[in-house]
Every structure is written in structure tokens, then in C-alpha cells.
Amino acid sequence: MEHRKQPSQSILFLQPFVDDLLRRNMEEARIARQLGVDPENLKKPTTFVPANVVYSFLGWGSEVAGDCGYCARMGSYMAQGGWAAILPMFAEKITVLECFLQFCATAEDQGGSAIYRLDVQGRIALWKLFRPKSASSDARFADAVAIGFFVELLKQAMAEAYRVSDVVAVTSDQSLIPDDLLPKTSVLHGSEGMTLRFPARWLAGTIGTMQPAAGVCPANLSKYQPEDIPTRVREVVRQRISDPGFNLEELANTMGLKPWNLQRELKAAGTSFHRIRNDICKEVAIEQVEAGSEPIADIAASLGYSTASNFSRAFRKWTGATPRRFCSERNPGSVEAERQ
Known about the structure:
Number of helices: 14
Distance between the termini: 56 Å
Radius of gyration: 24 Å
Strand content: 5-15%
Number of strands: 9
Structural class: alpha+beta
Largest sheet: 5 strands, mixed
Shape: elongated
């Protein structure tokens, strides 16, 4: 049976949101936990997050901001130079048509979470965003980002010729589009995804070179590809290694997969959740015991063991030595060595 990749997105897509939440005094560790990644990977472009996790994160961000129009506003900001991933595309002047065609190609290359199509019907252009059937209802927040983003690009291209009455957005949740972006009369209810309707002549409009917003550096999204599922599982498990109750079901939820689907993917890769968890537990245990800076009891607790004796038995199975003996042989001056 062919295994289809789970739709995902590079964390570059979320960088404007991560930065904004940090400015709102949200803790980095809390943001990382919401995304199921290590804090050190929050700005690592090769970190890909399951699409459904991205969507729920955007909804959570809206709650934190206390603004139902938050995602659309952030989309508009991203189109004003606040999104590192698009800046290389606008290093030179580009038409709306060229821009949209590039988005079609880029979206299909990056994780499979969105498909764009441009449909010209006489004097009307329809810019459509489709998502896989596996997309959760929270995808409406990402649809709002897309509306804010592309409406802003149309504004830039048409400048004084832009008329808001010439734009109609169709989306599954009209409440996410603020009136200052599009009036209620220009936002219609439709199925999941997004459609923007505007005059076809606007496709010839030119978007000028885009200057990055403060603190934003251009990043070439096209050179980054999603990590394989076992690698992603290792990252999530390492982050949650101290939680003894962290199980396959929670892992699958964090990954945006069904438990059976995750099991199937790991089996196809020749591994399993329990094997990966055991390997990481062993790696972290050896690192911390060898460092010799923490009491064995604290290390045991940090790895989810209920008692130090249970941890010691596991450690001896891994290395052939007790933690204290292992520590003493490699680091005679350590905290644990001095206890002997």
C-alpha cells in the first residue's frame, strides 16, 4: 500500500505569528509546546509542522490576541514584508499573475497542505485555495490568513485604482475577516478553503519590490523539505520525555495523525513509538549521567521514572553499569561520584 505524506508546513509560515506572540509576552516554551516542537526549532526552517497542528495553533493565537480578525490582519502584515518566506519572490517587480502562478507551484512543493488554482472567466478572475479532506475545521484560520495576505497584495498592485467593492471573498467563517480589510458585504459564506473574486485586468498589475519588516530576513522556502516522520517523532518524544504518561495517542495528536496511521508509518520505516522512546531515554540518560552535574534521582525524575531504582535497572540494562559507577568512571569529580 502506498503511504501518502501527511500535509505539513515549514515553521517559516508561522514565524510572523511566533514573533508576535513573543512580543505579547507569551513564553517561548509555551509556544513550542503548542506546536509540538523543541524551543530551539521554533526558527529552524527545516522544521515542518503537521497542517492540522498549524491550524489549531492559529486558532490558539487568535484567542491569545483576543481578536477574531487576528489571522487576517497577520496575513495582511505578512504581505507587507512581515513574512520571510516570500521576500525573495519580490526582490524585483512582479505582476499579480506571475505572483499567483509562483504560489501555485510553491504550495504544491511544500508539504501538500494547500492547492491554489487561478480561474479566469471573462472579466472576472477567481483565485481559489483548496485543502485536503483531512484538514480540520481549524483550517478556517489559515484561510483567513490567505485572504488577508492576497487582498493586501492586490491593494499594492492596484494602488489608487484599487476598489474594495471590486473584491469578494468566499470563506467558511466570515467572522474571521475584519471590516477594515473587507466590508461584510464583500465576504460571502462558502465551503472550506477560500476564493477571491476580482477584476481579471488586475492580473496585469505590478507589485513592487518588497522591503522586509523590522527584524525579518529573507528566506528561500523552496530549498526546505519536510523531515520524515521518524525524525519528527524523535523531536516530539525528546521534548516530552519527562512525561511518563505521554503515549502513542498523544503523540499522534501532536503529529496531526490518527494513532493507527502513525503506527503504520513508523512500522514502514522499521521502527515504533516504544523503540524511539526507549532510544531517546537511553541517549538522554547517558548524556546526563556522564555530565555528572545532577543527582541520579533528579535525572530519573526528568526522564519519567517513578523511582531512582527503576531508572538504575534500566540504565544498567543499557550500559552494563549502574549510573553511579558509570558516572564515577567517566567523571570522578562529579556530584554523584563524590556521594560514593
